[in-house]
Specification:
single chain, 497 residues, mainly alpha, two-stranded antiparallel sheet, 6% strand, globular
């Protein structure tokens, strides 16, 4: 009889109720028979992979917010930085993140941990079972590539957030696994992404497979892994593979990046689907971007709107934009037109996910979460070249200036703002890149990672949040106490907590 990893979650949370254990230490013989006999047909293999995607965006499985990327991941990364502040009353776990007073007892961090390991468990189930299915070899390898891409993505975010974590790759892992050194975690991530890159298609037939992982997604994520590891040449190589592929590009207008019809378009390497939006693997849930981010006053100004304004942009972030930067107008909302024709001013709220044409009532949205965009590849390319050459090269300038050029376009003409970067030192160019990323990726789950990677978390947060002072140990989050209570092998806790 197999033993299951003890991570206080159902071992398998397959979509549509396909399978779920009663508990990790309460093995049900009927469930075991199901696992052993599940993989019979091609459809079984597809369903197993779809179950991994379902964990990324669902709300049904969690006690508070839900799937990894639905309302936890990007909120944590925004609040624990100089990007966002919490306005949701009665949510101490979010206040703690905002103020850097969080402890190992934080339900939002625990949501990310539990849901990520649910996705990993489903990936392990698929990777372990699909090889035995008699089916087309190309499709089999594609499905295995998807499963390994998603497993790598989840481990990548976990290891960046928590450091050393349990590495579980099979269904017969020890009940109480110890923490694995992050170098070993990264080696597995690279192995999974390399397999995915080699076996995933460049694209899927029109109308089929929207939102599924591609070879470009695997290549771009591998570039981000190498960037995080400081392996600059490898990062450059992967970025250039994406840039030179001809499969991706920037929309001329930044606003077009966040139009629902453009999801899975030329700027998207990988997006996590919510609702329908033509996305074949968005199962049930709609995203909460607009409910969480748009100002509560909007609910009174537009009948039928459900906006709460639970998180807002910091004033410092808003003020850092050039007033004519297209990204500020697209990203930020500071005034509401009322029904009586008057205008109400509000503190900066984030509106970039509100496609007013396709979703005029805002509220819950079909908008995908933009996990990896082409603009990110360009800025990673510039960053890695600067590090590799101890200063920016012509290619580094070209990559960042493509992003700046797009920001000069106001929807009609290119404005004389944000001049191309040139003549900068290593550190000046690095500082400029960090600033560029803050304007480009607001509320996209990037900022805390960027501040940590650039070594600027303790320096920059107090400038946006006076009185809030992160400490060096905040470069990692604590291992959730609920997990340690179940598995003492997770000790010692991360320093400082």
């Amino acid at each position: 009889m197999k033993k299951y990893i003890h991570i206080s979650i159902p071992l398998l949370f397959l979509a549509f109720g396909i399978f779920a254990c009663k508990g990790l230490l309460q093995e049900d013989p009927k469930d075991q028979v199901f696992v052993d006999n599940f993989f019979q047909t091609e459809n079984d293999a597809i369903a197993a992979v779809n179950s991994i995607y379902s964990i990324l965006n669902s709300t049904s499985s969690a006690p508070t917010f839900g799937g990894v990327y639905h309302s936890s991941y990007w909120v944590v990364v925004g609040l624990a930085s100089d990007e966002m502040e919490n306005r949701l009353a009665g949510a101490p776990e979010l206040d703690q993140l905002d103020e850097f007073s969080h402890t190992p007892v934080n339900s939002t961090l625990y949501d990310i941990w539990r849901n990520a390991y649910k996705g990993i468990a489903n990936a392990n189930f698929a990777i372990g079972g699909i090889p035995s299915v008699k089916m087309d070899a190309t499709l089999k390898n594609r499905l295995l590539g998807e499963a390994r891409f998603l497993r790598a993505m989840l481990y990548f975010d976990l290891v960046r957030l928590f450091g050393d974590i349990p590495l579980v790759l099979t269904l017969d892992a020890p009940i109480n696994p110890p923490r694995t050194p992050k170098t070993t975690i990264y080696n597995q991530i690279i192995e999974d992404l390399t397999f995915a890159k080699q076996n995933l298609p460049k694209s899927y037939p029109a109308g089929n497979g929207l939102g599924r992982a591609t070879s470009g997604a695997a290549t771009g994520l591998l570039a981000k892994v190498y960037l995080s590891l400081g392996e600059w040449q490898k990062c450059v190589t992967e970025c250039e593979a994406v840039i030179n592929s001809g499969n991706y590009g920037l929309y001329d207008d930044f606003a077009e990046t966040f139009r629902i019809p453009n999801e899975n378009g030329k700027e998207t390497l990988f997006g996590i689907g919510f609702g329908t939006a033509g996305n074949s693997i968005s199962f049930w849930e709609v995203g909460q971007f607009n409910v969480r981010l748009l100002p509560r006053q909007l609910s009174g100004a537009i009948p039928g709107v459900n906006a709460q304004g639970w998180q807002v942009a910091t004033q410092a972030l808003y003020d850092s934009f050039d007033p004519q930067d297209r990204r500020r107008a697209v990203t930020m909302l500071t005034a509401i037109q009322n029904l009586d024709g008057t205008t109400t001013s509000v503190e900066p709220h984030i509106q970039k996910y509100w496609d007013k044409v396709n979703e005029p009532l805002a509220g819950n949205t079909d908008h995908d979460f933009p996990y990896l965009r082409f603009a990110d590849v360009l800025l990673m390319h510039a960053e890695a070249l600067n590090e590799l050459n101890n200063g920016p090269t012509a290619a580094a300038y070209n990559s960042v200036n493509q992003v700046r050029k797009r920001a000069r376009f106001n929807g009609s003409v290119e404005l004389p703002i944000l001049p191309d970067l040139q003549g900068l030192s290593f550190q000046s160019f690095k500082d400029a890149l960090l600033q560029e990323r803050s304007w480009e990726f607001v509320a996209e789950g990037q900022r805390w990672f960027d501040l940590v990677r650039f070594g600027k978390l303790t320096e920059l947060v107090p400038l946006s949040k006076p009185g809030v002072q992160p400490q060096p140990f905040h470069n990692l989050f604590p291992i959730p106490q609920g997990e340690i209570d179940l598995n003492q092998n997770l000790l010692p806790q991360n320093p400082g907590y």
